[in-house]
């Protein structure tokens, strides 16, 4: 069972990392499909002002990778853009990102993700199975907009902390705006390396001994972990307030889905749902 300190650290990482790292998410040039107003609150503003957006997100997701039990999550984030630049579309499942190269059709930069942990003390059915704790996942990303309504995104990250190994995702988003309403939906593919998958989905020989054969030894290899989709709907109530509802589904595949932990304790079917609210305001540039 994890100590109170490790639980606190995991919760702190889940909140602080997205909030701190996301500071520059919307700092760069314009995006397709959104309004480009050089006026904010219907009053002229000077060129040395920013639009700062503070957002809070809450929702439910699997308690750990492969779990059939849902748990609540929540985190804040902050972004900014120069006045006259359009709000950039981001999907609710994007890792916190900072663009180092940014044009209207191509963005590339660094990301920081977070992986939930599995702990034997969190539920009775996990007793005797080794812990695969939370992880921080720094990496890189690439966004490509081949058309004004289609975005492709690739993330490659490396998990550090209680588990290690490469993880990543590939996704497409079909994005369409109807005045104040923006709808998005698209497929997702997630993968993990040999080391990561065996840490998270593998079963050690001592696990089988401790559980008296409830789970059998299993070595999970790297590859595609899941296929699924994400959908979202955002509504801009005013220049200041935007709200979003979102949901997603992933089906665990290959070695991840065949894991005795998933088969005996969890589920191949992974659901996520949540809401967010973003408040924007003007402030003078700091530099």
UniProtKB/TrEMBL annotation:
<feature type="signal peptide">
    <location>
        <begin position="1"/>
        <end position="22"/>
    </location>
</feature>
<protein>
    <submittedName>
        <fullName>MipA/OmpV family protein</fullName>
    </submittedName>
</protein>
<comment type="similarity">
    <text>Belongs to the MipA/OmpV family.</text>
</comment>
<keyword id="KW-0998">Cell outer membrane</keyword>
<dbReference type="Pfam" id="PF06629">
    <property type="entry name" value="MipA"/>
</dbReference>
<keyword id="KW-0472">Membrane</keyword>
<keyword id="KW-0732">Signal</keyword>
<dbReference type="InterPro" id="IPR010583">
    <property type="entry name" value="MipA"/>
</dbReference>
């Amino acid at each position: 069972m994890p100590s109170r300190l490790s639980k606190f650290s995991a919760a702190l990482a889940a909140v602080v990392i997205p909030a701190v790292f996301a500071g520059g998410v919307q700092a760069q040039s314009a995006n397709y499909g959104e309004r480009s107003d050089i006026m904010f609150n219907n009053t002229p503003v000077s060129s040395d002002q920013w639009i700062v957006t503070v957002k809070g997100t809450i929702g439910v997701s699997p308690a750990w990778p492969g779990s059939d039990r849902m748990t609540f999550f929540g985190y804040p984030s902050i972004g900014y853009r120069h006045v006259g630049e359009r709000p950039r579309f981001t999907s609710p499942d994007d890792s916190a990102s900072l663009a180092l190269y940014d044009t209207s059709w191509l963005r590339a930069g660094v990301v920081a993700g977070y992986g939930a942990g599995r702990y034997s003390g969190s539920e009775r059915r996990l007793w005797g199975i080794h812990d695969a704790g939370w992880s921080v996942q720094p990496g890189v990303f690439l966004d490509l907009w081949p058309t004004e309504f289609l975005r492709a995104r690739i993330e490659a990250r490396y998990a550090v902390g209680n588990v290690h190994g490469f993880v990543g995702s590939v996704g497409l988003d079909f994005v369409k705006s109807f005045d104040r309403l923006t709808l998005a939906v698209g497929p997702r593919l997630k993968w993990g390396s040999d080391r990561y998958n065996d840490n998270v989905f593998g079963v050690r020989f001592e696990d089988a001994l401790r559980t008296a054969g409830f789970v059998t030894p299993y070595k999970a290899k790297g590859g595609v972990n899941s296929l699924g989709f994400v959908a979202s709907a955002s509504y801009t109530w005013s220049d200041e307030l935007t709200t979003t509802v979102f949901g997603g589904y992933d089906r665990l595949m290959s070695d991840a889905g065949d894991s005795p932990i998933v088969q005996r304790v969890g589920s191949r079917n992974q659901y996520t749902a949540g809401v967010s609210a973003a408040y924007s305001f003007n402030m003078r540039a700091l530099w």
